[in-house]
Every structure is written in structure tokens, then in C-alpha cells.
Amino acid sequence: MHKQHSESPLESSFEVKPDRPVHKQTFSIAPMLDWTDRHCRYFHRQLTRQTLLYTEMVTTGAIIYGKGDYLAYSDTEHPVSLQLGGSDPAALAQCAQLAEQRGYDEINLNVGCPSDRVQNGRFGACLMAEAELVADCIKAMRDRVSIPVTVKTRIGIDDQDSYAFLCDFVHTVAERGQCDTFIIHARKAWLSGLSPKENREIPPLDYPRVYQLKRDFPALTIAINGGVKTLEEAKTHLAQLDGVMMGREAYQNPGLLLDVDSQLFGIDTPAISPFSVVEAMYPYIEHELTNGTYLGHITRHMLGLFQSIPGARQWRRHLSENAHKPGAGIPVVEAALALVRDRVA
């Protein structure tokens, strides 16, 4: 049972207690197009064992008709969720079933992306205006799979940004679609006039609205997304909600993920250094190189690992200048790591 808090969100304290529900949604890394690919997720899993990882959004058309394997991932990534883009219940159900067969832990429906390309495909944030269709999509997937099916959405779109509109959307999807988990990006989306980047920054964050949603729908699992930059901020949200999803900060400053398991999940794990994380990546890098992957496709996700550590700039520079070169391999990473060690020593 979710514990209600009467104090101000800014004054609330948080610590992991035995009676506090800790589950996969407690902390997750947001699905980010062109960023959270399988190489990124493998790297993030070296930093945190408990965090729920998400794929980039994958459209149903790509999975059903595409020539590549859009469901590829490593078993090391678990727990991992597939985020789907689409609005056809039958196609979504087919993809959800394929994902369950491949071993994914969760299916998530994108109802938050505001890009024109996504809107033209009739999925993403524009679906907030079609709550019954979203509910039908969720129900179709839930009827086909036994793993959780969740929704990631906004607090509103365009001029449909009242709290009543958000409540109506959640109620419809929860009741008709039997969805019990919502990840709420605490900004509304403008479907025209703003780029996807601007939609992540310009509409103001409204955390209290998401807190209120949890109070009004206490039986639902509600996680929050948007603007979370530190684990302390995550703790503040977790005093009110069931989960926190961190996006760009987790990608650009991945070193903070080293403390997630102990601070947010209450798991007493041996301390891991960023140096050992890099070395743990070597077997994976070697394997991927033999399969034709370019080194830079992996190391681009690792550039921010040593943020605020002496030598971080040299690490980034060496990888940026050398990882893309033909034949680049482990020696490039070892040389970059040595530049940090020399500064730290």
C-alpha cells in the first residue's frame, strides 16, 4: 500500500524501508531515440543492476516489416522494457507477443513523443486526445502477453492541459485498458510550434500535478519523468510517488548511476569504480568488434562517465578523436583510461 505523505514535497524525507514497495519502476532510465540503444543499455547495466532500462522507441512497422532485428538485446540488460510506437491494437499486440517471446520484462506504449514524424504515424503524444484508442491498444497487448504493459505519457497536449483532462485520460486507460502503471512526463507537449528538443525544455514542469494524480489514483503505479538531475531529487519524488524515470542526466553523467542500487533500492553492494566499469566493458567490446560493430558506436555512450573527475576531458577527447578510426579497438579505450589514471594518481 502506498504511504501517503502530508508534508511538503520539498520537506519530505526518504529512505528505503522494508515496508516501502520497491519494484522495477522505482528507478528507470528513459527511452531516448538514438541514445538508449543496446550498447548504451549494456553499459548502463554495468553501473546499476536494479534500474529498469528502456529501449529506444521502436515502431510496430519496423518490427513487423523491417529487415533488421529491432528486438535485439543482451540478456545482461534485464530488467529491460521495450517501448513501442504505434496505434493499431492488432499490430501492437503482435509486437508485444514477439517481445515477450524474446524475453523482454515489460512493454511500454509511447504516448509522449511530440515530433511531427511520430504524429504523422498517429502515435506518440497526439494519442492523448484519443484515450479510448490508447485503452484499446493496451487491452489488446495485455490480452496477448503476461508481462506488464505500461504507458508513458505527458500531463497534457496543446490547450488540452487541464488536470481534469489528465484524469480523464488516466481513468479511461486504466479502466477500459486495464493499465495499472503510468510514467508521467511532468510537462505538457505542444504538437506544433515546438521541436522535440524544445518540448523537453520550454513547457514548464508541474510536479505537484503528478503528485496529485497519485493521490487521486492511489491503486495505480505512478512514476514521474522530466528534469530529474540528482538522486536527491529522485528521493524527493519517491516520497510522493512509486517511481522516478531519469533521462538526459543519466546519459550525460552516467557515473551517478553507480549509487542508484544502494541509495534508491536499499541494496548493499560492493563499491564499483568507473575504472572497473570500463574494464568490464572490454569483453563486450571485443565481441561486438568481431561482429562488425564500430568502436565509436559503443564508446559514444561512455563519454560522460568521468564527469567531475580529473582527466575527464582527456578521456572524452581521446575517444572522440580515435574511436571512429578504421580498426579502432580496445587499445584506444585503454589509452583513454590511462589518461584519467595519470591525472587521478
Annotate the secondary structure layout.
Elements: E1 27-29, H1 38-47, E2 52-54, E3 58-59, H2 60-65, E4 80-85, H3 89-102, E5 106-111, H4 116-120, H5 131-144, E6 149-154, H6 163-177, E7 181-185, H7 196-199, H8 207-216, E8 221-225, H9 231-238, E9 243-246, H10 248-252, H11 260-263, H12 274-280, H13 282-290, H14 295-299, H15 312-322, H16 330-344
Parallel strand pairs: 1-2, 1-9, 2-4, 3-4, 4-5, 5-6, 6-7, 7-8, 8-9
Helix pairs in contact: 3-5, 5-6, 15-16
What does this structure look like?
The structure is a single chain. With 345 residues, this protein is an alpha/beta fold. The protein is 41% helix and 12% strand. The protein has 2 domains: 24-263, TIM Barrel; 274-344, Up-down Bundle (Four Helix Bundle (Hemerythrin (Met), subunit A)). The protein is built from 16 helices and 9 strands. An 8-stranded parallel beta barrel has the order 1-2-4-5-6-7-8-9, surrounded by 6 helices. Helix 3 runs parallel beside helix 5 (131-144), helix 5 runs parallel beside helix 6 (163-177) and helix 15 (312-322) runs antiparallel to helix 16 (330-344). The N and C termini lie far apart (49 Å). Mean pLDDT is 92; it is low at 1-21. InterPro entries: Aldolase_TIM, DUS-like_FMN-bd, DUS_fam, DusA, tRNA_hU_synthase_CS. Its EC number is 1.3.1.91. Its cofactor is FMN. GO terms for molecular function: tRNA-dihydrouridine20 synthase activity.
